[in-house]
Amino acid sequence: MSDSPATGSAQLSVLDVWCELQCPDCRTALDDVRALRERYGDRLEIRLRHFPLEKHKHAFAAAQAAEEAAMQGRTWPYVEAVLERVAELDGKGEPLLVEVARELGLDAEEFDTALIDGRHILMVDADHAEGKAIGVTGTPTYVIGGERLDGGKSQEGLRERIEEIADRLFAEHG
User: Fold this and answer.
1) Which helix or strand (DSSP H or E) is residue 30 part of?
2) Mind listing the pLDDT tens digit for each residue in 8-40?
3) pTM
4) Helix (H, G, I), strand (E, B) or coil at 151
5) Residue 158 and residue 51: Cα distance in Å, rounded?
6) DSSP symbol at 1
7) What is the DSSP string of 40-105?
8) Residue 174: how many CB atoms within 10 A of its CB?
9) What average pLDDT does the structure give for the chain?
C-alpha cells in the first residue's frame, strides 16, 4: 500500500495501439508513437496490442516474436526494428524476426524456440479476439479513454486527436 493518496494509475493514461508488424501503415504510425512517448513520457502508458491480419502471412509469427521481446524487456525497440524492415519481412519471414532479435542483443535462440513451441499464441489470440470485440478491423487502431481511433486509412490528424484525449484525461485526473 502506498503512503501517498494518489496511486500511480491515477497519474497514468493508457493508449492501446492495435498493431500488425507486417503492416506498412503501422510503420508510418511509429512517428506518432515516438512523438507521443516524447510528449508524455511515463504519464502515458503505450501498450502494444496484436491484430495480425490474414493477408500478411508472417504477421502472426511477428506478433508472437514481439511477445517474446516483451518477455525479454524490449517490446518497443523490437517492434520498431521489425516495422522499419517491414518490406523485408514478406520475403524473409521468421528468420528475419530472429535476426532482428540478435541485432538488438536479445536471446535469438529463445525467439526461435518461442516461434516453434508457440508459447505466445494464446496472448496473440486473446488480443485479436478483444480487438474484434471492440470493433478493430484494421491496423493501426488506437484506443484511449474509451475512444477508438482507426488509423488504417489515414494517420492524418490522429496524433492530435490522441493528444486532445490524453490532455483531457490528465486534466480530469490532475
Assistant:
1) helix 24-40
2) 444 479 999 999 999 999 998 899 999 999 999
3) 0.88
4) coil
5) 19
6) -
7) HGGGEEEEEEE---TTSTTHHHHHHHHHHHHHTT-HHHHHHHHHHTHHHHHHH-HHHHHHHHHHTT
8) 8
9) 90
